[in-house]
Amino acid sequence: MPGENLSRDEAQERAALLSVDGYEVSLDLRSAVGTAEAGARTFRSVTTIRFRCSEPGAATFADLIAPSVTAVSLNGRDLDPGEAFDGTRIRLEDLAAENELVVDAQCAYSRTGEGMHRFVDPEDGETYLYTQYEPADARRVFANFEQPDLKAPFRFEARAPEGWVVWSNGVGELTDGVWKFAETKPISTYITAIVAGPYHYVTDSYSRTFDDGTTLEIPLGAMCRKGLAPHFDADDVFLVTKQGLDFFHDHFDYPYPFGKYDQAFVPEYNLGAMENPGLVTFREEYIFRGKVTQASYEGRANVVLHEMAHMWFGDLVTMEWWDDLWLKESFADFMGAFALVGATRFKDGWITFANRRKAWAYRADQLPSTHPVTADIRDLQDAKLNFDGITYAKGASVLKQLVAYVGQDAFLEGARRYFKRNAYGNTRLGDLLSALEETSGRDLATWSRAWLQTAGVNSLTPQVILGADGRVAELSVLQEAAESHPELRPHRVAVGLYRRETRPDGETGPLVRYARVETDVDGPRTVVGELAGADAPELVLVNDDDLTYCKIRFDETSLATLRELLGDITDPLARALCWSALWNLTRDGLMPARDFVGLVLRFAGRESDIGVLQTLHAWADSALTHYVAPDWRETGGRLLAEGALKELRLAEPGSQHQLAWARFFAAVASGRDDLRLLQDLLDGTAKIDGLDVDQELRWALLEPLAAHGVADESALAAELARDDTASGKRHQVRCLAARPSAAVKAQAWAQVVESDTLSNALVEATIAGFTQASQRELIAPYAEKYFAAIERIWAERSIQIGMDVVRGLFPSLRDSQETLDATDAWLAAHEGAAPALRRLVLEARDDLARALRGQRHDAGTTATSAG
To answer: FRET pair for 115, CA 20 to 30 Å: which of 60, 456, 501, 558?
Structure first.
């Protein structure tokens, strides 16, 4: 639609013209009840906006995406809805100095997770609603000025079906059949929220007495669908919530500013979570229906703390425009890990950060779409795609480096001043840097240019020269950058030297660090003089303790040591950093992919950190799918399955490591005997001591059986009857699309590409089932269909569904030069396509080209480490 993609220039013009005094929004949600097929498609939304105009007589527009508008009134003057409203914008002319706009509209319920999402639970027929807006979907629920710098107080009210409860940002009460909510503080439109339905709701409270004697009481709430109530461990959610509130009060010196703190776990959610003040929303998969590892609980706690950090970084103080999205996301990502380690039982959170979050950043920073942390965001489509590994994980990594650079105390004091100066306002990069310069005494302009305003990732490689005495004569760090992004940055790093420990009995022990130096690396070569004279190392680890953001490389001696002794490194963070570096070498085509698979087979069974282990499983699977030479895939798959089964049988019965190996074995099983074991575990005719085959694990075992033609439609129907829930339905849909049949693939393709009847969650499940690595030939014919369809999909569907389809159905499994050429041909023929669409295709092309380079490198090796 013409005005749906708001540009930065339009937003700046409107912000210069308007200031908003307040919103009153009245929603009638009584039409929501009914089945998903028969229920009403729209609800009534009446919005009153009071705002001022600096240039009386000027014209502007309000945002609204709705099927129809019943009435529009501006300053008591009725406007013709047919003339004023074009489907996305309401034209406002001849503004006064003070204005009142009233819009009465019919807004649409969503099935894509954007705007007012409506979900009917197949288990009990109950209907659940929730909103999701970022970056600009509040306009699908009420008329507004949809940009972050036009903050205002909001007062919501809602009518709902009898027996429902409605929640919003403020405290609510039911009066004469209407839910009325307390007025909010000034906030941006994208963080307002409504949750409504027969949710299971649990309450608690938080209390904090400050040094001045004042006491803060925060009502806590947590909710989920009734069908998930038996699995809802709200006590653990509340525990982490209270620990986080204590931590941020201790460090921010600014009391939580938004009254209550509700957390809603909602169905078919597109994101991990959203920081709506007073009403945070999460994907309901954070409620665990079966046994999961501690990595899952750690991940949930990290998300809870990430969203809580947003109450200050993002909600209290908000970026002016999406260019400075990092001012909230990078900080929340960093603060989530910082609080996780500092306040909760998850003391190894920085290991997860180094191993998982940074891997996301490294990948994103090598794509053709990489961008500075402070990005150039031209419009809302740009903004939607910039919720990426740069904005989150690289930005957080840069902040971790900044803390090391200015000192933790100075960093936190700068944050405290930033909050107090800019409370309920909007900021840009300079506002934060000025506060940090005051507290640290450092000039951050050069640091900012290098780290926030340039793109790309540097590589740091140690160079060791030994003297005649066998000791280190000189150790230097070489820094390199890609030709496309040649910036060499200043790094604060720790360089660690490792060697095998000699035991009292003369036997060699584990690989331990015996020397460490912190130093500043700048330019192409930096000599680390403090390490001269040290004993010769077997392993040099640049960026030990993970202080900076870089790709770690190894000298030849260190790489040879890792090939033989990786499992002997005693420090879990050092070991995780080495694994991450080896994966980057694999992705960069510098290590044969089969060598990486061999290292996983040899050493992953000794990995103590469960999060690292699960990451290694994912990387090994990715290496097999994308980076090994095609003629080695069958061998590699067999070796991985054999290795996984071996470790599964060796794992401690009932342990989380056993569960992780069971899931990995299911993911890589393909041989007849392996599939028979999966079937026997499902049937109960085979047992592995301590392994509880609960419902979630049953689905994990069923997917490979479906993909290899062992489990048919009737078996999947029987499993759904056993687990007739929303979660079970998603699993069944994925498994149905995974079956190795041309007719099945045609049906799945039609359901996603030719129809819009599936919800966002079922689109995601269907795509996941469709794209099976074992079915390359079966889905090869869809490559041509993909390129013929994506521009239409992008134009006709919501941006979320468009992203899911364009990313998820790209023919990456048809990994050949032919597919690369077809991608280039599409890009050449569609230079005028939407920039966001072209970005997605360019990213997929880059992944494919990288995979082909990796395959060529793997094919040219005589690697033996994989057996």
So the answer is: 60
